[in-house]
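Re: [ENG-882] Designed sequences occasionally contain unexpected residues at chain ends

Forwarding the minimal case from QA. Structure tokens:
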């Protein structure tokens, strides 16, 4: 089980942190205020860099002494050299990109491994909300109304696994997280995950 109180970071960020080897070179794309980078630097002594779209997030991260620049995952990942990092992280951001396929390819060009987390639109409550209520779901992992959400390419866990196979990407580890924030996890590669998990975290590498 993963402790929710061990460190004061979001559950999916703690799962991501557990996947990173100490002393690694890490690029956190869409790093927000730098919470994960700060945590990794403190607990795993990583050589961390960050890229964040919002200037508010960049300022918050830089104020903590973190190396973070403003950038757009859809555009600026092209400028990074191949194999520049051990891990490239994209947490709760893939669904907000214009071209998730190209972004995913760039993550695994820039890094030896990529770690990606995203909300699962196949979660049963989202299905019920849409089918019975006739409206787009709002939840802890999908907190915005449809008219103000940054999400433009929502997907299910099954969708993501199929895309990974199409791109020749190996799923090293997949963790599907229960909706209630409980630390009990199930394999994201299992049949139950697409229905019962509210979010997923994948550790990926090239075939």
């Amino acid at each position: 089980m993963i402790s929710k109180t061990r460190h004061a970071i979001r559950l999916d960020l703690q799962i991501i942190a557990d996947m990173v080897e100490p002393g690694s070179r890490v690029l956190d794309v869409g790093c927000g205020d730098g919470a994960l980078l700060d945590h990794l630097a403190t607990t795993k002594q990583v050589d961390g860099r960050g890229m964040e779209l919002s200037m508010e997030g960049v300022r918050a991260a830089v104020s903590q002494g973190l190396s973070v620049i403003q950038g757009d995952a859809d555009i600026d990942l092209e400028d990074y050299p191949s194999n520049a990092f051990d891990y490239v992280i994209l947490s709760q951001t893939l669904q907000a990109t214009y071209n998730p396929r190209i972004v995913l390819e760039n993550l695994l060009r820039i890094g030896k491994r990529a770690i990606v987390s995203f909300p699962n639109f196949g979660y049963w409550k989202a299905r019920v909300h849409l089918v019975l209520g006739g409206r787009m779901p709002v939840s802890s992992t999908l907190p915005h109304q449809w008219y103000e959400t940054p999400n433009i390419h929502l997907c299910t866990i099954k969708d993501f696994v199929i895309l990974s196979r199409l791109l020749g990407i190996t799923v090293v580890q997949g963790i599907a997280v229960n909706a209630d924030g409980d630390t009990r996890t199930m394999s994201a590669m299992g049949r139950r995950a697409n229905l019962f998990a509210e979010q997923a975290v994948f550790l990926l590498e090239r075939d």
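QA comment: On inspection the terminal residues look reasonable. Strands lie at 25-29, 47-52, 68-70, 85-91, 111-119, 169-178, 185-187, 197-206. Proposing we downgrade this to a documentation issue.
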